[in-house]
Specification:
- Helix content is 64%, strand content 7%.
- With 161 residues, it is mainly alpha-helical.
- It has one domain (42-155): Arc Repressor Mutant, subunit A, CATH 1.10.10.
- α3 (60-67) packs across α4 (71-83) and α5 (105-129) packs across α6 (131-160).
- The longest helix is centred in the last third of the chain and has 30 residues, at 131-160.
- The protein is globular, with a radius of gyration of 18 Å.
- The N and C termini lie far apart (47 Å).
- Residues 15-146 form the HTH marR-type domain.
Length: 161
């Protein structure tokens, strides 16, 4: 059920609305393009976490911090990814208290497939917006994320004290 997004001049440049629309459309693209590629158990909620594991592995705690989510939420997603044979966990050789996450052979192949699809999308974005504008947009988004991470956390800390 595709809906057309109609924006008036007055609402065209409202940042939260644009972010919402882009996220919704990107989620739709992920659901159709990425998450059904030979892996029916994989869903769009897994994507950010899965792509953050990387080729060299990461600890569960590092992954939770990187994703800015609770360790419990990360552990739940990791269990789901283990159940569909995308990742495996093992004790760190350096510290037995630390659990490291790695791609399985199947997970690594899927990672490269996903990465290729995302790179294709970025190429399309660059054609639409121009390479320089795309790179500027990425830099702006990174700054906005950092702004919200710093300010949202500050307001939470002041209410917790």
């Amino acid at each position: 059920m595709a809906e057309t997004c109609v924006m008036t001049e007055e609402t065209k440049k409202v940042a939260p609305k644009l972010v919402y629309l882009l996220k919704r459309l990107l989620d739709e693209w992920m659901g159709k393009k990425l998450c059904r590629i030979d892996q029916p158990g994989f869903n769009s909620a897994h994507l950010p976490l899965f792509m953050s594991i990387g080729k060299t592995g990461i600890s569960n705690n590092e992954l939770a911090a990187k994703m800015n989510v609770s360790k419990q939420a990360t552990s739940k997603m990791v269990k789901e990814l283990e159940a569909i044979n995308m990742v495996r966990s093992e004790k760190s050789p350096d510290d037995a208290r630390v659990v490291m996450l790695y791609f399985t052979t199947e997970g690594e192949a899927f990672y490269y497939n996903l990465k290729s699809q995302v790179m294709d999308l970025e190429t399309q974005y660059k054609k639409v917006a121009g390479t320089k504008n795309y790179e500027i947009a990425i830099e702006v988004m990174l700054k906005l994320v950092k702004f919200h991470e710093e300010n949202n956390c500050l307001s939470e800390k002041s209410t917790n004290n």
